[in-house]
Amino acid sequence: MVGCGGEGGPDRGRRPAGAQVTIRVPADAPTISGAVALARPGDLVLVAPGVYHESVRIDTARVTLRGASRDRVVIDGRLRQPNGVVVAAPGVAVENLTVRNNTQNGVLVTGSAKAADGQPGRSGGYDTGDEPVTFLKSFLVSYVTATRNGLYGIYAFSAQNGVIEHSYASGGADSGIYVGQCKPCRVVVRDNIAELNAVGYEGTNASEDMYVVGNRLVGNRVGLTTDSDHQEKLLPQQGAVIAGNLIAANQQRATPVQADGGWGTGIGIDGGSDNHFVRNRVAGNSNAGLVITATADMPAVGNRIEDNTFTGNGIDVGWTFPTATRGRGNCLRGNDLRTTVPGRLATTASCPRPGKSPSPAGRWAMPTAPGGIPFTEVAAPGPQPQFPRATTTGATPVPAVPVLPKTAGIPLPSASLLAANARVQTS
């Protein structure tokens, strides 16, 4: 069934039980929010090309919101609203559109009522105080361009069982793609481009069945971080798989300044534990390819760094613990690398490593981070790949639990991974 058109949109009163319809914007409803309000579970909201000045909140389960053209369907916040799209119901898919110019997030997927209402916490992130942890269960963000947003481009917070894929994030004043406060996450972040952000991808307190695979994290200030933070619940962060990513040239000046001053680092592990970094290509990061450190009270424990290729970094791997909190049981095996701090880590900290064994630490001269630019001035993205058959395919069923990748089958990426759709190149 399809929308019948006209001012009233599809005739909901006469719809057979279980029937699914396509609600078209602006044919059936003049705004995206109006179309979403008409939708029932299983419906598709299909948006015609145009610039839409609204914040869209989806509170109905299993609705698909899809643009007819990824580059020409634009939700533009004009810096007057916190979020472009808020997903607050399970089983929702957001596909094939651009979200830009929001003071906080391009797309926010969350089970937190406070976060959904746009209540920021300390340092611009979300501190939900005494609010109990409530997970939104099952989501999909696919073929979305999120650019020039004041906090995160695509943000899954207190959400489980989801996929962020085939998307592009730039101009995130904090991170392009962020997953926070989930355990077990059962979240897959795959085949995305994050560039020209303060941080390409960040996972904070994102633990267990958390997969970041096959992404291009190039030309940010910091490529990827996985960390523990008291600002969110479910400490500590542990049990993520970071595999098959290209993480390179993360010292781009024309980016928003990172809140903690990070610069020139490919991968940062700050108080994260039991993570597996395997077959990533980490290249040309002027400070370091991979850094392990600890928060003031959260040690970095049991991280495995295996079969990665490091080239052209200031140092390839560096472990540093400037406070009394240290690391334990971190190890390396089978990596192509040249320089470590302390020296000879590949020998002295080879895998497997006893869990209680203290991790050695050292220091190195880190480059000074230069000033950045406002997120509103980050270079606009080029055209991005379209969702296949966007206008002829029905609503997208979102599985209750996504299929999780098998780490053994994830290859080392080429140095040109997803380069055709990126502005920043690795050389």
TrEMBL record:
Domain Periplasmic copper-binding protein NosD beta helix per the UniProt entry, residue ranges: 147-317
UniProt keyword terms in alphabetical order: Repeat
Superkingdom, taxonomy of origin: Bacteria
Pfam family, one: NosD
InterPro entries reported in the protein's UniProt record: NosD_dom (IPR007742), PbH1 (IPR006626), Pectin_lyas_fold (IPR012334), Pectin_lyase_fold/virulence (IPR011050), SCF-Subunits/Alg-Epimerases (IPR051550)
PANTHER family hit by this protein: F-BOX ONLY PROTEIN (PTHR22990), F-BOX ONLY PROTEIN 10 (PTHR22990:SF15)
Name the UniProt record assigns to this protein: Periplasmic copper-binding protein NosD beta helix domain-containing protein
Lineage: Bacteria, Bacillati, Actinomycetota, Actinomycetes, Kitasatosporales
